[in-house]
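yo

u said u wanted the structure for the complex thing, so here. seqs first:
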Amino acid sequence: MTLSAFLFQALNGLSAASGLFFIAVGLSLIFGVTRIVNIAHGSLYMLGTYIAYSFATKIGGAIGFWGGIVATAILVGVFGALIEIVLLRRIYRSPELFQLLATFALVLVINDATLWIWGSEDLLGPRAPGLRDAVEVLDRRLPTYDLFLIVIGPAVLLVLHLGLARTRFGRLVRAATQDREMVGALGVNQAMLFTAVFALGSALAGLGGALQVAREPANLATDLVAIGDAFVVVVVGGMGSITGAYLAAVIIAEVKAICIAVGVVDFGYFTVNFSKLTLVAEFLVMAVVLIARPYGLLGRAQGQVRSIAEPEDPIRPATPALKMLAAVAFALLLGLPLLAQSSPYMLILGIDVLIAVLFATSLHFIMGPGGMHSFGHAAYFGLGAYGAALLVKWLAAPMGLALAAAPLVALAGALLFGWFAVRLSGVYLAMLTLAFAQIVWAAVFQWEYLTGGSNGVVGVWPTAPFDTRVSYYLLTLTLAAIGVLMLRRFLFAPFGYAMRAGRDSALRAEAIGIDVKRVHWLGFAIAGGVCGVAGGLFAFAKGSISPETIGVGRSIDGLVMVLLGGIQTLTGPIVGASVFATLQDTVMRQTEYWRALLGGIILLLVLAFPGGIVGALEKFFSRWKTAS
Amino acid sequence: MSKAGHILHLALATAFAIGMTNSASAQGTIKIGELNSYKLQPQFLDPYKKGWEMAVDEINAKGGVLGKKLEVISRDDGGNPGDAVRVAEELVTREGVTMIAGTFLSHIGLAVTNFAGQKKVFFLAAEPLTDKITWQNGNRYTFRLRPSTYMQVAMLIPDAVAAKKKRWALVYPNFEYGQSAAENFKTLLKKAQPDVEFVTEQAPPLGKVDAGAVVQALDDAKPDGIFNVLFGADLAKFVREGNTRGAFKNRTVVSLLTGEPEYLDPLKDESPVGWIVTGYPWDKIKTPAHNAFVDAYKKKYNDYPRLGSIVGYVTLKSLAAGISKAGSTDTEKMVAAFRGLKVDTPLGGIVYRASDHQGTMGAYVGKIALEGGKGTMVNFKYIDGASVLPSDAEVKKLRPAAD
Amino acid sequence: MSDLSIRALSKAFGGVRAVNEVSFEVKRGEFLAMIGPNGAGKSTCFNMINGQLAPDSGSIWFEQKNLTGLAPREIWRLGVGRTFQVASTFGSMTVGENVQMALLSHANEIYRYWRPAAAMHRERALALLDQVGMREAADRPSRELAYGDVKRVELAIALANDPRLLLMDEPTAGMAPRERNDLIALVKRLVVEQGISVLFTEHSMDVVFAFADRIIVLARGRLIADGNAAEIRDHPQVREVYFGTGKTFARAAGAAS
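structre next:
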């Protein structure tokens, strides 16, 4: 590769960096001020591309295109403000991360709404009027639109920077990013500030999406691609730092551009196609940055965000009535095979629900009592599933051995990744776990010889005596019950108390001799191991597994289950997983627009049960008790 | 401790059980289960769904099959193999379908293939392209309609050879379909033209191509020819960047699937003129069978057919023909009937080969041209799938596990 | 014999010498107050002793063991208890469980996974709570407590590992005057009974002069005075830093007695 080729690729990288910057900067502002993990940010970005497409094609010309971009930013900003006012404002008092659930529902609804409005076909917008062609740079043709992007990114950065430095609104935003409580204390109308920041962040997302209309077709997959990129850039740059966001965007885009430029390299004995690294480049960068700089490149340690939600109640052992209820429920589940003689599908769904319960309970173990919000719990599910499946595939291991290996493989992974993760906290921990999960995913995806690549491993079926639906269901029920009860037992034991002590206040826990990092590390590993059991069961239940087992989607499903049930309760994940898994199965059959329906139902649940289903019910009953 | 959750679960489960009585009431129909990634791949699967719905209506209007009407129970497969297998089980156990069809993505197709083999359910894979469905992982109960990756690549090879280019660059999405298309292309081209050189390969992640950088990297490798496997949104980005940067000038581009309306139409006036592609020039195929299909489709939906429409239509027609030949919906009889089953399709007659269960539906190979501001195919010819498939003896070696 | 020995302790933040060559000792059973105006370096000094900050130079010795650079939990295991300036507890636990947590840690029973913690060391926890007058509240969620009660619970927690030295950073901060005296009186009584040495910082001069056995004064990172209440009250340099000139502690001290 020549030097000029290399330099030219660096220019390409800068234009890509501007795109990434626009995806991320709004999210960074929103998170910095409101601490909301807004998964719908990618959806707003996608809407930006669609709306800009409509302006550019319906009105047409320079006004339709350039005016359309500005109008799009405003429209998406207004839409963002509406989301904040109508939905999020109602649930600020809910437990941490609960807002994530609401924005997850929005992703589903917005995607289906977009499908309904604009249809399923990809919509390629016109080229930008005035910037259709290319200029010669370094003997190569660089599109003028790329040049424009290279300039507009830093320009917007500068405007934002001045806005934040020079205006009252900007000072408030910065103050709130540093210390949210202080702003409330200063007598600032916090609701107005949040709405304004949400509108600004959304408008930036809309602007970013709109600017892409000249480069890529509006399509329904953009939302998830964008949100993934956005989080990586924000975290690498440092939450709330817009300069950091730009810096991170440049680094990530340049790393990718270089991977692409290097292409295939022959090392003599083997060849490496570096372009394949772009699959995971941003997550590798994120993992490295977070390990070296726990708050991102330009981020600062954030003061402990005291949740405005009510803290959770002390845990109590099950009352006799509760134990009775649990025994009845278990007996009913044991008897399900009898009931299922007329409808065998109940067992199949039952197996899926039980696996989801085990998955969610293990996630809750670290998320709730441990306070470690893992966004990459699917990694351990996948390690368990692949551990079992690969033993069967390569060593023809018997099912028992494979199933026993599942938690061990997951445990090993959790020990390794957990060691790094527990050194971080809050959203940085969340993102590092996500990065690890993506790295595992990419390894599985790419290592085709061993793992079967994107097609995965097929032919992992249970053997006798578990080769019937009834016996496999009973096996799943047994292992799920053991897993759930074991984790519960741990939580009531000194170890579980120590984990909660470390979460409630790491400083104080250390001051009474508790090695918080070690306790949390072990907790992380235990959760990973139990999650591996769920993964192993999953592999044998389906007969095949593929990289989706490790994907972001599954990690998010886990978060949704935990939050839906109620993060502050011990039975929450069980209820959340059961409801979510059954709901999804039911809803998928009802309508073509099942995602919107699922999102709508979750929104209703979010509004009806702030604090999760079990959390809200508990509160209701305790009030009812005190009242009577 | 499970209490509330399990109770809720039981309540829901009971609700299902009650709901079941409804679906079981439709006596005297033949139930076919259909599952696909409708939410994940709507641009391909909307037309596909319209296609099979039209086929069902046509068949039932003529009195159905074996005196019974066809009833298709269609489901979204959730876009991942885990959900897909559950949906397949649901179709079989709860809805009581006697056969299943569908799937689009290779890994989901493979998972359902494996499920069909394990549970001995008849499965007609409609769209997934991976060679493994009929070869390495093929089984007794699975058939596939659409030409596989290998077949599509093989159809393009004669034109690639005829272009007489020495230096080739490859670009493909980084997952099994792209990888195996690239491997097949390299193997087949090398065999036909031993002096060929592959100067670079770009494998961007699916749906996330950095088009500018990728185009530039290809251009910098100074190839004479480019083999492209990108599709969908990646293709649109790639084509626009490539045109602006002049990367396709004086180069032969051979491209998989790009002539399919699903992928070509969004490109509008930027359709890459001169590319050699596989596809479906629906407006230019003037056989009586195809005319009838297009007319009926336009009348029914007020829209033109895409390739997906053909695939959906032929899937159902194939099942109907198979049931009719088998004289029953019994799985073993269906397998026997499908082996060597001949089906008339809008694209001509096809056969499901007994040796590897692959349908011989072909594809059109031609060049992209612009007509009236839209992309279309010219100088195209229909390549019968049978002409590019390996012989029965070769195939036998490729299907170790199947019988 | 001295319990705690601080030798030439120094710490700078970005060029500002927050603590500068400070040396002092706490004798066994002594109730030693560390005072000084805002920014004198009291908290920095404290956080080095309890292990939260690493000193730039100097050393900290406790019962002939070098504490310098040890983590807070290691220092605690050597028999040093502490309370925090802003008191709080483990909010998701009951009052009793908060104390039990410290007892479990003291007994090295953190890494036990099976036996329910609620029943472990319950009696001892209740006894400790009894000492601070909080036994009645043992089963209440600790987050519901009034601030003054939280301080008492924190004291019970700090006593759980049978410390021989107690570090208390502004134990009465945020409390009403009456409560202050009660709390310090309680502390004094307990430490005298149990022979515990105490090092505490305090803003409230009435408390200091009423209860401290000895007082050390920090100003701008340096130790400027060391003596009993009377000596400190009359120390010219102390007057200088607190009042500029002239005024005395007389009124404050009078209020306390």
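Chain B has 14 helices and 14 strands. The mean pLDDT of chain B is 91.
cya
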